[in-house]
Amino acid sequence: MREIDVKEIIPIVKKLCIDSNFYIGKDVISKIKEFKTKEESPIAINVLNILLKNYELAEKENMPICQDTGVAVCFVELGQNIHLVGGDFTEAINEGVRQGYKEGYLRKSMVDDPVIKRINTKDNTPAIIYTEIVPGDKLKITVAPKGGGSENMSEVKMMKPADGITGVMDFVVDRVARSGGNPCPPIVVGVGLGGNFEQSALLAKRSLLRSLTEKNPDQKWAEVEAEILKRINDLGIGPQGLGGRTTALGVHILSKPCHIASMPVAVNIQCHAARHKSAII
Question: What is the pTM of this model?
Answer without folding.
Answer: 0.96
